[in-house]
UniProtKB/TrEMBL annotation:
GO terms for molecular function: transaminase activity. PANTHER family: AMINOTRANSFERASE, LD15494P. This is Valine--pyruvate aminotransferase. The keyword Transferase applies. InterPro entries: Aminotransferase_I/II_large, PyrdxlP-dep_Trfase, PyrdxlP-dep_Trfase_major, PyrdxlP-dep_Trfase_small. Residues 37-427 form the Aminotransferase class I/classII large domain.
Amino acid sequence: MTRKTSQSRPPIGRSIDLLTGWPNPTLLPPRQLDEASNQILCNPDNTDVLGYAPDEGYQPLREEIAKWLNEFYRPKNPISSARICISGGASQNLACILQTFTDPIYTRNVWMVAPTYYLACRIFADSGFDARMKAVPEDEDGIDLGYLERGLQESEERAQTEENNHPKIKTPKPWRKIYKHVIYAVPTFSNPSGRIMSLHHRQALIRLARRYDALIVTDDVYDMLQWPSNPSLSPRRMDRAVMPRIVDIDAELDGGPLDAFGNAVSNGSFSKIVAPGCRTGWAEGTEAMAYGISQTGSSRSGGAPSQLVASFIYQLLASGTLQNHIYEELQPAYGKRYHLMMTAIEKHLLPLGLTLPQANKDVAGGYFIWLTLPETLDSTRLTERALVEENLTIIDGSRFEVDGDENEATHFTKELRLCFAWEDVGVLQEGVMRLARVIQSEMTGSDE
């Protein structure tokens, strides 16, 4: 059958964007931020918020974050403010971790659970890890531990052959150590797959990291955006974590960390739960780890990168406003969006042969839904057709591959990611229907 070109076909309807992974503007809290800023700036005792920040960040916010995380995660070992430093958000903090705790020669590889948050690849490359980023496939429990262990062992054997036994560029300092490996993951409501790494795999990952001197960096930015998987259940306030964080497991497992720095650091951000424009986040690890991150040169020079906005967020937390915003507004709103899109997917896409990762039977969360196409289809071509023919913006799975990794098992030419957070809630089902039309057209070999 001869295909017709689709280039001359006009777009259908208004544009729909199921790519952008940002919070919808209607879910941002400008009124609450305005009230918090007035509370801070109208108090004459708060002159410090207009000055340079301490290296570790605004102390009242560090204390409130510690209280809040203790309430949400309920770790066996209580979290202290000394385990926390304030950052300019998760991406900036990842760069600071690499600057302080890795050496571009001695640190053998960066191991990234794939599909991965693709924009992290640029951050790793900026720290000298071009051609040394390695993909680790997901399994149903969130990470293929056997694959990772084989890769770590082979990497160590190469390092011994090359006599790469000591840091080459960055020497250890009192506030840092140089790790042999970095492991990067989004273990809860992963971007893009939405998977939740199992408790067993989290524990086994810590033990592997200790054995091979690896630092596990986890983006824990979606943990609080959770709701019941079953849409028939009444929405409820979900103010307890579905799973312990890897950093909490490192603090407790087998007697705790092997040294002062530990093998895990949690990357937190207020971008998804307050607003991206706040450019404020936090890192949590051992006390030595948190202090070491705060001693990155750029922070040591100018202090923590968020001081004024950090004081506003402190006020939101101290008053309980942020907690209520998350549990009473964001969770129900995102849960509604998720279930609307899932209903449309089950009606319009699954009958066409698309599949989903195995979902947690009790809880869903995050921003994204990951779909696998039938074998005959290609996600890149579908993405292009969707934009031209249906005015629908989506993102194909190949974008979530680890840069430079050649393992066919971690190439995603049959996958798509849909985001339900950014677009207006009223067009989410329409976006799925448009995608279904493109897929049907592709399967029948016609552009009509």
